[in-house]
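W.,

You were right to be curious about this one. When I first looked at the sequence I had no strong expectations either way, so I just let the prediction run and decided to look at it fresh. Below is the sequence, 252 residues in total, followed by the output.
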Amino acid sequence: MKNLISNTVTIAYRNLLKTLHNPDELLDVIVQPVLFMLMFGYLFGGAIAGNVHNYLPIIVPGILMQALLSAASGSGTQISEDMHTGIYNRFKSLPISNLAPLAGQLVADILRLVVAAIASLATGYLMGWRPAAGFGWVVIVVLLDVFLGWTISWIFAFYGLIAKSTTMVESISLMTMLILIFLSNAFVPVKTLPNFMKVIVHLNPVTYVISASRTMLNQGIWSNEAWIIFGAGVLIIAIFAPLTVLVYNHKS
């Protein structure tokens, strides 16, 4: 166990360094949430909420979730790339724990998710957003959303292991992220949508994550939706952690 922890930390550090030196991965974690916050805030703030200041309480939780989904999807891409370039074969030749490469990737994902969350919220704050419920609830929202994002990383990691190419992983991950975000209440009030779109939005789990985040940030209330989100995260881990480890052991 001690070797597994030590090896996992080393691999996680390696993956974080790779993110820092890879413009594409850095774009997903830092630049993308900043760009979307600025672009969507100033483009749509006046049309949807009258001005940017009134729009920020709506868009900040949406951009936060978008940033976390984008960061989480990078897990599958990274694992697929390492599998197809032979990096994992090199790891197998080293005297390290067999699970360390997979665990290191998922530990590194936690820090990537935290950085993406900070980039999103800091940009909103600089634009004038202030959480009505106070800073303490911001921390709670970040912890809950990062936890959910990390559980979703297991889904993308599983797909990264079974996909035939890294390009396919990137394409599916991007489409999944866009569908979940844009067919939700991330950027517009649900009441303004056509009836058929309302049905789709209400079936989208991301809608409930964003609603729970808004409730906590604006009212300081831990709602039933927040409990559902936490329970969903635990369920995802219970299903996909064993599946991912099983496939990983089979592939490696």
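Here's what jumped out at me. Residues 158 and 212 are 27 Å apart (CA to CA). And, maybe more interesting for your project: The chain has ten helices and no strands.

Coffee later to discuss?

I.
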